[in-house]
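Q: A reviewer asked whether we had any structural model of the full assembly, not just the individual parts. We don't, so I'm hoping you can provide one. Inputs are below.
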Amino acid sequence: MITKTARRHLRLVRALPTIAGLAILAFQAGAVLSAAPAAAAQASQPAPVLTAIRAAHYPGYDRLVFQFAKGLPTRWSARYLSARSTASSGLPESVADSTWLLVSFARATGHNSGGVAYVPASTGYALPDIMQVVTVRDHGGTVSFAVALARHEPFRMSTLAHPSRVVIEVQTPFRTVPVRDFFVSTAGTASPSTIVPVSRPVTEPATASGALQRLFAGPTRAELARGLLFVASGATGFWRLQIQGGVARVWLTGGCGNGGSTVTVASEIVPTLTQFGSVRWVKIYDPAGNTERPAGNTNSIPVCLTPAAPAPGFTGVLIIAVLIAAALGILVGLGLSVLSVVTGLVRRPNLITPSAYRAERIKAKPIPTGQFGPDTAWPFYPVRQMRADLARIEADRAARYAKLWRWPGKPLVWILLLPLTAAVVVCLVSAWLTTVLLEILLALVIWTSAAITGAAFAIAAVLLCGIERAWHTVMRTEASCPAPDCYHVTPRPAYLCPGCSALHRDIRPSRLGLFTRRCACGTLIPTMVLRAAWHLQAVCQRCEKPLRPGAAALRDVRIPIFGDTSAGKTRFLYAALDSLVAITSRAGTRFGFPDEESQNEATAALDLIRSGRDTVKTSTTLPAALTCRIGSGRRSTLVHLFDTAGESYRAAQMHDSLGFLDHGHGLVYVLDPFSVGSISDRVSGHDATAVQRAHAAAGDPETAYGEVVSRLRDSGVEASGQRLAIVVSKVDLLSAAGIELPGDSDAIADWLMDAGVHNVVLSARREFAEVRYFLVASLAADQPDRPHDPGAPLVWLLGTRGLRLPAHPPEAAGEQAPRSGTGQDQDEVSAEPGKTAVVQP
Ligand SMILES: Nc1nc2c(ncn2[C@@H]2O[C@H](COP(=O)(O)OP(=O)(O)OP(=O)(O)O)[C@@H](O)[C@H]2O)c(=O)[nH]1
Ligand SMILES: [Mg+2]
Ligand SMILES: [Zn+2]
Ligand SMILES: [Zn+2]
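A: Here is a predicted structure for the entire assembly that you could use as a starting point for your response.
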C-alpha cells in the first residue's frame, strides 16, 4: 500500500537528527499522499472530517476505528515503520522498542474550522497490542497517525459506511498478563500528588519493560476523564531498562526537569517498577546518563528531577505573616510581663500595712471577749504581702494590656487597613497569651515556694514554741507583776517596742515572723520570750507596768510573808535578806537585785538590820514585791518577797487586794510567841521587861492565819499546792528570858500545841502541801551567836522550787536547816547579761 516514492523518502530521513521530530514524519506522510494524482481532481468537494478514533479488543484481534463525517477520505494507507526509521523519526522512544504503524488519510482533516482537533494528540489504549495513537499530521488535507503496537503483527484494513469508517484489525495471537501502571490523579483531591494505579495487559517475559512502555503511552480516554494524567517531566521515553540484583535502572530520553513540581516522572516510574518482585530499588538516569546515587541499594533520581521545595504560596505568606505577628506579640507580652512584675514588686503601691493586716485578721476571726487581738507588725512576706504583690502584678498587667487596645485613629482607618489590623490583632492576642502564661508560671513558682516555705515555717514555729514551753516547764519560769493591786502572773508578758513603745502582747513565732518580727515602726523585734526578755522591756499583760528584767525567762518564786501586826514580819524579811546575802556569798553564788526599787529597799533594810535599829511599822498600803535575783545567767532565779502591815489580814474588806497570797509558791506565816498567852506568861515569870521589849502583837495569833487560809479557799487557790513555813519570831528574847526551846520542826509544832496554838498547827497540816516550823531571831547575819537563822525558812522554800542553796554554816546549821538543802550543788556562776546590782555583805 505504501508507494515506492514514500519508501525512498523514509530512507532519506534516516540520517536526519531526531530534532526534526514529528514534523518530518508528517511531511513524509503528506508526501506519500500528495503523490497521488487523483487528489487534485476531487479538490472541489468538501473534505471528510475525522471525528473519532476508537479501539477495542476482540477475540484474536485489536480493532482500531477511524470515524469520518462527510464521507470517507479519498485515500488511506497504513504501514509499519522500520526500527531504524523510528529511531530517527522523533517518535516517543518509550515505544522505540515497539513497532509503529503509520496510518494516513488523504483529502481529510482532523479539526474544525476553529482549528480545534477532534481527537487528542496522544491517547493511550489498554489493549493487548495497540498501546497508543499519536497524531502525526493534520494539515494540508492530510491527517496521519502513528499507532504504537506492542508486537509486530499482521493487520487488515477495510472501510464501513453509515457512518463512514476506516477499520484496522491487528491480529493478537499471543497471551498477556495484567500489570499496573501508576498515573498522577488530579481528581477528587486537593493535592495533585496522589498516584493511582491502572491496569495494562503486557506480554511476557518483558513485563517490566512493557509496563514502562505503557506508562509513557499515557492514560486512556476513560482514565483522562477520571482525572488521571501522565507527568513526563520533559522525558519522552526511555531507551534502556536494566534489572539486576533487585535494582532497576531506567535511562530516560527527551528532556528532564521537575517543572517546579514535587511530582515528577519518577513518582510514576518507581511504583510501576517496584510492583515487580525482581525490583526493590529504582535508579533513574537523565538523558545525559546521570543519576544522583548510581551505586548502592537506594532509589535514585537525577538532579533534574529533584523535587523542588514548594515555593511559598499565598497560604505560606499568610502563615509567615501570622508567625511574625505572633512572635512580635510574644516579645510585647514578655516586655509587658517584666514591666508588671517590676511595678508590682519594686514600686509596690499595694503595701499591706501592719494595721491593715491586723484588721483583716480580726475581721476573719473576731477576738473573743477577754482576749487580746493579734499583734500589730508587718506580716511575713509569703503569708500576706506575696498575695497582694501577685494581685498587683495581675492588675498592672491587665491595665497595661488594656492600653494596647486603645488604637489611634478612627475605626474606619483600621477597617481600610485590614491586613495591618489583622496583624496587630494577632500580635495583641499573642501578647495576651504570653502575659497570661507568664503570669500563671510566676504564680505557680511563687505559690510553690510559698507553700514549701510555709510548711517549713509552720514546723519551725511549732518546734520553737515547743522548745519555749519545755523551757518554761523545766525551769519553772513565769512573769510576776510586782505592782501593788495587780500581782498578775503570766507565762508570756507583753513587750514594748524599743523604737515606738508599741505594745507587743504575743511575741511567739507566728505569721508575723519566725525569729524576728518587724514592728509597724520598722524596728526588728526578737520573737520568743527567751530572747525578748533580754532585749526588750517586759510589761504586765494586765496593768502594763514594767516587769523585772528577765521576767518569764527565769525561774520565778513568790514568797508572801503574813502574820499579825507587830509579829515581826518586816524584821524577819530584812534579817532573812541579810542571811541570804551571807549564804550566797559563802556559796559563791551571785546575789543581787534586778531593779532599782528593790535595790534601794534592800539597802535600807540591810542597813537597818546591820545597825541594830528598830523597824518601823509597815504602812497599810499594798506592797510592791521586793525582788532579788539569785544565781547568774539564764539559770538564775527571781525571788519576789511580799510584806504588808498586819492589819491587812484583819480587815475583811482589804482581802480582795491581797492577790500576792494567791500566787505565792511558799508562804511564810510569822507567829509572835509573845502574843501567845501561855508563853507570854512564862516569859513574864522570868523577865517582866522582856514582854515589853518584844512589842508583842496585840491580837490572837491565829486570827491572821485563819483569815489568810479562808481567803485562799475563797479565791479557789489550791492551798494544797503551796508550802507553808511557820516562823516563830523574836526567839532571841525567848532564849534571853531562859525559856527552854524545842529543837526540830516537829518539836516546834508540839511546843506550839502545848502552848495552845493547836488550831494553826492542825489546820496547816491539813491545808498545805508541806509545813515546816522555824524558830527565828531576826538579827543581823554577822552576830556571833545566831542559832536561829532567819534565812532558813527561805532556803527551804526556795529549795522546794528547785533553787538549791547551802543552809546555814555547819556550826550553826542546827536542826532547823532543811535536810534537802544540805550539800546540794550550787548554781554556776556565769557571764551575767542583766544589770543585776550585787550587794556585798
Ligand atoms: N529582839 C527581837 N525583836 C524583834 C524580832 N522580830 C521583831 N522584833 C521587834 O518586833 C517589833 C515589830 O516588828 P516588825 O517586824 O516591825 O513587825 P511587823 O510584823 O512588821 O508589824 P507590822 O508592820 O505592823 O505588821 C519591832 O520592834 C521589832 O524590833 C526579833 O526576832 N527579835
Ligand atoms: Mg511590818
Ligand atoms: Zn515599734
Ligand atoms: Zn500588773
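A: Points you may want to mention in the reply: Residues 569-570, 618, 645 surround magnesium ion (ligand 2) (CB under 6 Å). The radius of gyration is 63 Å.
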